[in-house]
Amino acid sequence: MKHHRASGALRKRIGTVVLLGMCLFTRVHAVENANCSVASEGCATVSSLLSIREGYGRDATGGAGGQLVIVSSQEDEGPGTLRDALLHARTPTWIRFAGNMTIELKSQLRVPSNVTVDGRGHKVTLLDYGFGVYRSSNVILTHLTIDGRNRTFTQAVDIANASHQIWIDHLDLSRFSARLVNVKNGATDVTVSWVKFHDDNKVMLINNITSDNLFANFDRDAVARVTMHHNYFVDTVQRNPRAQFGTVHFYNNLLENWDFYGMSFGLEAKAVIEGNIFANSSVRSCKEPPFFSTVEGVEASYCKYIADSPARSALANGEADRKRYEAGAKKYGYSRDYRAFLAVQDNLFLGDAKPILEDYLPERVPAVSYCRTYEHPSEALAARIRREAGNTSTQSQSARCGDH
């Protein structure tokens, strides 16, 4: 095993803000409705979830304090359905499920503010479409499986348009022809934790540059703050994640067997990348479908890149945006950097995986100032993430932080 570390000074700088002393570790288990008639914070169902929040989305309360609604139908729409519960969530609403369900959706579900969709205790699967979180705040999505079956050009969870205080946790996401998760268009204060991303091509974007002028929406999108921890990216192709602009704290995640590349950062994103585990083998079978459909109408396959993929745990800093930057520099007179500002430390590389990212102007990366359950990366941590990430009831140890 190989560890890639930053300079001693940088380790000291970042280490001072780990704040492990503020974190109390405790066993927390999913609790059933416990006869709660409302979703008060005194209800065990509510408190057991809210007690493990951390990261930039740690103040999300979802539907706490509001009505408790039970989904009883696995139809796409109509009384008792998930869609109906969301349509009528005009006040804080905590949504649970009456049993195991597979819901074949005909269109995206829109999530309003002050809502929790809580699948704990049951096996709840959404097919073909997922959630759109637009101009919403205080949203929690937990313990759900969302499988796009490569049928639609949409996302499993699309967080956009100034949405804020969003927490997605313990989701199992796969097979969407666009992406699994977006955080874009002024969205901020988002935490992504214990999510399993798998069997997908362009997995996740933090900001999406659609203008010919790369920095046209910089002021809008640079407000993004995203925490990602204890997520499992496995059997994907690329963008685990790809981040432009904004602030990203990426720690204790496991990236395993990407076919093209692991992560990508550029365009003055500010990222702390610490304690992650990268595992890849240059000799393995390809698990991709015959091709991935793309919005450009191209049928793409990446199996041919597997032999070289371990050497691309990430793209070189700014590489994904460099050509477009150079093409537009004269026209728009860019004064900003095409590279990201990076603080990199204590990452672990297993198998054939090789380190790529290194510090770049780390003094321009905001220090992490919240409590977090940082763990030194190890093969034992990798095994636990494989076992516990996703829509699983297995959760041996979670965190209770002291700064909510």
Overview of the structural elements:
- The protein is mainly beta and 404 residues long.
- The protein has one domain (42-388): Single-stranded right-handed beta-helix, Pectin lyase-like (Pectate Lyase C-like, 3 Solenoid), CATH 2.160.20.10.
- It is 12% helix and 34% strand.
- The protein contains six helices and 29 strands.
- It has helices spanning 8-15, 44-50, 82-87, 218-221, 319-332, 379-388, and strands at residues 2-4, 23-26, 67-71, 93-97, 101-104, 109-110, 115-118, 124-127, 131-134, 137-147, 155-160, 164-174, 179-183, 188-193, 196-202, 204-206, 225-229, 232-238, 242-244, 247-251, 254-256, 264-266, 270-274, 277-280, 292-293, 299-300, 341-345, 347-351, 398-401.
- It has an 18-stranded mixed sheet that branches.
- Strand 25 and strand 26 form a beta hairpin.
- The longest helix has 14 residues, at 319-332.
- It is globular.
- The two termini are 36 Å apart.
- 53% of the residues are buried.
Q: Which structural traits does this protein have?
A:
404 residues; mainly beta; Pectate Lyase C-like; 18-stranded mixed β-sheet; 6 helices; 12% helix; globular; metal ion binding; calcium; metal-binding; Pectin_lyase_fold/virulence
Please tell me the CATH architecture by its name: 3 Solenoid
Main beta sheet = 18 strands, mixed
- Helicity range: 10-25%
CATH superfamily: Single-stranded right-handed beta-helix, Pectin lyase-like
Oligomeric state of the chains in view: single chain
Number of domains: 1
Distance between the termini: 36 Å
Low-confidence stretches: 5-34
Question: What's the total count of β strands?
Answer: 29
User: What is the CATH topology classification name?
Assistant: Pectate Lyase C-like
Rg, rounded, reads: 20 Å
Number of helices: 6
Amount of beta strand: 25-35%
The CATH class is identified as Mainly Beta
What is the SS-derived class?
mainly beta
Apparent shape: globular
What's the mean pLDDT score? 91
Signal peptide: 1-30
GO molecular function: metal ion binding; pectate lyase activity
Pfam families: Pectate_lyase_4 (PF00544)
Protein name: pectate lyase
